[in-house]
């Protein structure tokens, strides 16, 4: 009701002196403190104490992650193509900082089945908050957070990094993860025996025929899990690259900062990911304005990256 109705957006933003926005900001801050405290406590407890606490505490954390996703959805609707809505949300004390904190650290605590929704919702909200609002972009560029690498052990101390550095590293992680699965699929295809002259593959057919029902189901499930993981990493990498492109804009200095962190200092893979994302958005028949916005962001990012050479 709010996403495509300007009057509803304005009403929700202004209602009782921005009560909705400030309440969401307060809840997000409380949620991250709760998650942080749970995992800090978990790290200092003994094995048996940890076992007794972990089930209840993790269940509470899971519910909070669900609530954060819903919070993002509400604020995405309020800020959809609305500079005023985005500005008001960005002005809430600590909100942009906490958005960065979620991506930099707290998302590591989310269970695997909730991580994708959490990441996409948070990146989607940041797209709304940063794209239409220069004030939010300026504020976000100057933010720093404790970045915990996705491959690190939970509880390990992170390194304070700038928002742009964090987003770039997150892109590299998810893009690389998707490529690993691509390579695994390619290797599996290469290892398959080629068809005979009649176009068949007797050995492959015989192997499939000798598999039990459980083995067949396991093989199918393994392939589906790989495909799902690949899709999720690709989508998260796409949203991450979109936020990076919005933050960089046409600033060649910021583009150089991103390049310096990319493998071989080559930004091509990020541009290619953005182009694939744009193609995907065209296929899904989204509003023309949404597609044109992504095109504009991509073109600006390309200009900035070329100028930084």
Automatic annotation (TrEMBL):
The UniProt record lists the Core-binding (CB) domain at 268-309
| Start and end residues of each stretch annotated as Disordered | 190-210
Residues forming the WAPL domain are: 1-284
Tell me which InterPro entries the record gives: ARM-like, CB, WAPL, WAPL_C, WAPL_dom
Q: Where is the composition biased (Acidic residues)?
A: 190-200
The UniProt entry's sequence similarity note says: Belongs to the WAPL family.
**Protein name, per record:** WAPL domain-containing protein
Origin organism is: Meloidogyne incognita (Southern root-knot nematode worm)
């Amino acid at each position: 009701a709010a996403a495509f109705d300007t009057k509803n957006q304005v009403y929700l933003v202004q209602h009782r002196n921005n009560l909705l926005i400030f309440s969401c900001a307060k809840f997000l801050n409380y949620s991250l403190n709760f998650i942080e405290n749970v995992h800090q406590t978990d790290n200092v407890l003994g094995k048996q104490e940890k076992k007794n606490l972990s089930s209840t505490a993790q269940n509470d954390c899971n519910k909070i992650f669900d609530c954060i996703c819903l919070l993002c959805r509400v604020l995405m609707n309020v800020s959809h193509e609305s500079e005023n809505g985005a500005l008001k949300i960005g002005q809430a004390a600590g909100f942009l900082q906490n958005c960065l904190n979620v991506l930099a650290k707290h998302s590591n605590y989310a269970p695997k089945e909730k991580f994708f929704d959490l990441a996409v919702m948070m990146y989607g909200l940041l797209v709304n908050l940063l794209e239409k609002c220069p004030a939010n972009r300026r504020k976000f560029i100057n933010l720093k957070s404790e970045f915990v690498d996705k491959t690190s052990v939970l509880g390990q101390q992170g390194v304070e990094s700038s928002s742009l550095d964090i987003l770039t590293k997150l892109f590299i992680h998810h893009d690389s993860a998707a490529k690993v699965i691509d390579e695994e699929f390619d290797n599996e295809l290469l290892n398959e025996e080629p068809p005979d002259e009649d176009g068949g593959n007797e050995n492959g057919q015989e192997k499939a025929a000798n598999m039990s029902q459980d083995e067949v189901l396991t093989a199918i499930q393994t392939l589906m899990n790989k495909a799902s993981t690949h899709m999720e990493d690709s989508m998260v990498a796409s949203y991450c690259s979109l936020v990076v492109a919005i933050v960089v804009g046409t600033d060649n200095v910021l583009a150089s900062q991103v390049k310096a962190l990319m493998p071989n200092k080559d930004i091509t893979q990020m541009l290619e990911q953005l182009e694939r994302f744009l193609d995907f958005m065209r296929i899904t028949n989204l509003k023309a304005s949404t597609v044109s916005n992504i095109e504009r962001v991509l073109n600006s990012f390309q200009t900035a990256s070329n100028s930084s050479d």
